[in-house]
Amino acid sequence: MDPAEYLAFVPLLFYGIALADLLGQWRRFFDRNYFYFPYFLTTIIFTEAGVWNVYQYLEIVSRLEGVSYAQYWLYLVQPIIFLLTVSALTPEFEIKDTESYFKERLSLVYGLLAIFIFSHFFSGFSSMIAVSFLKYTRIILAFLSIIIAFIKRIWLIYLMAVIAVAKAIRTFFCSLFPVPCSLKI
Predict the structure, then answer these.
(1) Quick one: DSSP state of residue 92?
(2) How confident is the model over 15-70, as pLDDT tens digits?
(3) pTM
(4) 138-144 — which CB contacts under 8 Å span 24+ positions?
(5) Assign residue 152 a region: left if phi > 0, alpha if psi is -120 to 50, beta otherwise?
(6) In this predicted model, what pLDDT tens digit does every residue of 125-148 receive, in sequence order?
(7) Which residues are within 8 A (CB) of 114 and not within 5 positions of it... i.e. 6 or more apart?
(8) How many domains does the chain have?
(9) Within 10 Å of residue 115's Cβ, how many Cβ atoms?
(10) Can you list the positions of beta strands (E) in the chain?
(11) Domain that holds residue 72
């Protein structure tokens, strides 16, 4: 294991813990007593965001070798914020009223999500947002998260889910067929 892979272990561990927590929540989706559709959408959005950020570490690992301690902390900020966001989102399984739990924590969850999205513009992940489509959708999603955090309108979560799914689909197909996606949209 080279030094860069060693340094990538901790951020990836944080993402792994958060993703394990999110995937553990999926059992709620199969029980009518626990199911709440906006919570379901938020969990899907967070799961995709976590997987995307883990995937992006393939690019970042090569830049980790020789970083200073302070620079390394910049690489840890996003996984820590993501882990905090997921921890704020996910209730214990004993809590049966997912709807009231989710509505109660809506401001915290979406406020942290906005911070997480904006952190991509200021840290070692900044090169990930070179593609204009991704940059603009991240800006829209971040501001939408702020709006959801402050006005707590559930219908905005549906709008956010549509935008996030469109971004995920485009990113997925661009990874399969990179030539048409290289155009700035």
Answers:
(1) P
(2) 999 999 999 988 888 888 888 999 999 999 999 999 988 988 877 777 778 888 88
(3) 0.85
(4) 141/117, 141/167, 142/114, 142/117, 142/118, 143/114
(5) left
(6) 544 444 566 677 778 888 888 888
(7) 142, 143, 145, 146, 149
(8) 1
(9) 19
(10) none
(11) 3-181
